[in-house]
Amino acid sequence: MSKPLLLIVEPELIKNVLSRDFPYFTSHGMHVDEEKDPISGNLFSLDGEKWKNMRIKLTPTFTSGKIKMMYNGILTCGEPMVDHVKNIATQGQPMNAKEVLACFTTDVIGSSAFGIDCNSFKDPDADFRKYGRKLFEITWKAAFARFLGIIIPRFRRLGIEQDVQQFFVDSFTKIVELRESGNFKRNDFVQLMLDINQKAEATGSKDGLKLGQMLAQSVMFFGAGFETSSTTMTFCLHELAHNIAIQQRLREEINATMQKYDGKLTYDAIIEMKYLNMVLDETLRKYPPASMISRVCTKDYEIEGTGVTIETGTEVFVSILGLHRDPEYFPDPEKFDPERFSHENKSNIRSFTYLPFGEGPRICIGLRFGVIQAKVGLCLLLKNFIFTPHESMKYNMEIHKNSQILSFQEDLLLNVKKVS
Ligand code: HEM
């Protein structure tokens, strides 16, 4: 209400802002005060040189090789989910997809970002599930804080409540102490960050991470990785329940590929599933969890050939949801059609109109992890169960108006039957 925002819609300009002319738009415009609020020093919120250095340090943590190393941990978190859904199916109850997938994702991210076995299925009030839920609770207070952040940048932070922050600080400190005190190691992000430190110490470089910096990144991984992946799987199951032919084709692909790998859902098997990729890409098109991204202009920038200058400090927004549902780029945009992402059709998608993970140097660093996590969850569920819409659910479900991450207003209930 105090200054203009610029919403850019032209793909060429979006490309220039996010990628080609990135040095003019390096910031997400978040308030950072590492002294008073260590969590604000996370990769998403940092900008300038601090962001660049942190991104360089963390990038090797997210390579395909590292994600492959963590794969078995992700798969293990799927076992209690399958048992839980089996019980639901046996009792003939509807499954609350959002809740089941939130528990699975809490277990995966808790285990990989904090090195903790969360047991969300055994104990839905386990601390990580409880505080994870609080992190994304859509309260009026949170909505107001976000609104305030839009008009006063000084208030723009992740907006994590004090008790939630304290829980993460305490948990993380204990974990690091435990790791540093003994020979205990795990294939997770905590270990990868500790390895960065060990390497820095050994080479005498200043590239190590302080405890506060590691904590900030772990909370960020939890915040950025939990809700995004869990809503992606929820949206996908919603569409598959309404599109039985697509669901069946995907199940057949999962079974056929697993047969090639001795009946196991290995990392290589998942990577080989092409239709799974198409279904997930289409889910992220129709329902991009981060529906809007922004950059703050950090140096005056003239838009080529227009004589128009974007002034320093101006916030520039890109509506990912707007692009993904634009009939000019995706004809009949409300239709869920994985064929848009077939090998032949994919190359016809205009560049910078499909951006579920953003683009350019600030593209989502957890992309590979988020995708693998969602694929594992979906494969385990579809291999074992058939989903149909519960009688109380409509196809066109309402989207939550106050949620930062795209989500349905209501819980998604699905009928579930064991695959015979
Ligand atoms: C389906 C899952 C996910 C989606 C759709 C998603 C989407 C996004 C988007 C749109 C951005 C902003 C990019 C931009 O500004 O251009 C972003 C940034 C980010 N994401 Fe993700 N994300 C997902 C999963 C994850 C996971 C699993 C993690 C961590 C383990 C993660 C960590 C981050 C971080 C740290 C950033 C900030 C990167 C930077 O500013 O350098 N995300 N994500």
TrEMBL record:
It comes from the Eukaryota. This is Cytochrome p450. It comes from Holotrichia oblita (Chafer beetle).
